[in-house]
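Example record

One chain of 463 residues, shown exactly as stored in the release files.
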Amino acid sequence: MSMNSLNKLRPYQQEAASAILDSVFKRKGLTFSVEMARQGGKNELSAQLELLLLTIHMTKPENLIKCAPTFKPQTVISMMRLRDRLNDAGFSGIWVPEMGYIIRLGSAQAIFLSADESANVVGNTAHILLEIDEAQDVSKDKYTKEFKPMGATTNVTTVHYGTTWDDATLLEEVKQTNLEMERQDGIRRHFRYDWQEIAKHNPDYLAYVEAERERLGENHPLFLTQYRLLPIRGGGGFLSQQQLAQLKGRHSRKHRAEPGKIYIAGIDIAGEAETAGGDYPATPKSRQDSTVVTIGELDFSTCDDIRKQPRIRVVEHYRWTGQKHARLYPRLVDLLKDVWKCRKVTVDATGIGQPVSSFLRKALGSRVSAFTFTAKAKSELGFNLLAAINAGRLKVYKGDGSEEAQEFWLECERAKSQFRASQTMNFYVSPSEGHDDFLMSLALAVEAANQYERKTAKGSVRE
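Predicted structure tokens for this chain:
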């Protein structure tokens, strides 16, 4: 095994690898940051470095250490990749797994650890290399107190891998420090490869990311951070003026189904009595006063591929405030089943919404899907809503002067976003400014549209 093994890497991977190995071999003890667009090959870069270094040090009782935000699946995936590379290099039957988190080659070993806040990792020493994978999701305190000291006595070279998120992550902090040191001594420590750089060497990747850009939108938070590698600067307005303009459709509001059309619904459930106080927006969904139903019409006419998502035209809103759920049940069933013949309904099943969703499921069957608001689930809901708006496939009926329409647009204009760790986001309307029932109902309608399974028969769309 030699440096020639790195020839399997693409030029941009080789560039970062050469700098890292130079620091390792000359015992410079540098700290690097490697930002690489999602699916750009940072894990392969890491595995090839590990393979080479274990081979060179296999006669020495020394460690390289790699950590990731979670043991399963992230750390386990890194272990599997290294095992595969060892086998590819002819070390099958020679390398040895130990204790479920160590891979030994001769006397050298790679130790894989979780950087979760609760993980007990103190006591390990990194002699060869210290790697921090997905560093944007690793706690600064965890790294500073428990991982960084692992290389203190050995002047170990450290590499932080990941993609951007906001301007408060560990990776961003290391990156900014590296850029400042580069300005002082000219030694390159930060390596950045966005999707366009990676696409130069991989036509399939180019096609994939262009499809993602079309699906999400150029300025979607996930596309910005995962592919363009541009950090989000704090929170702010959830919808931009451009996105608000994109939401406005030219179609008229409807009050009943039309033959041959496909309809879906999103339902945000209110508590029967309003709850005051709380720590909103820290909790995903803690204050609501109206039950809102958003009816959407699906249009597959522009879909030349069965996998392509349809356009969603919001055609109707219903709102009930202070209504007992028992009185709403028959009305909801009638509207969803008889008036609109909805093919898919996604209903808020959080807290008091759970019995409502259960009742609708019994009355309407599998067309009803329950949605429980957790921080992670709500984040995905918000990202999907932004993707639908950015792609121009979500339109709301033109203003008709109704109270429902006025409240809907007011909520959209007042909505805020809050970016959090692990690429998650909260979106909401501050209680001091109003409510977000229409906004959440819209997001649930998009979820219903995404869940609707399109089937074809001789080119037609049917249920």
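Notes: DSSP finds 14 helices and 19 strands in the chain.
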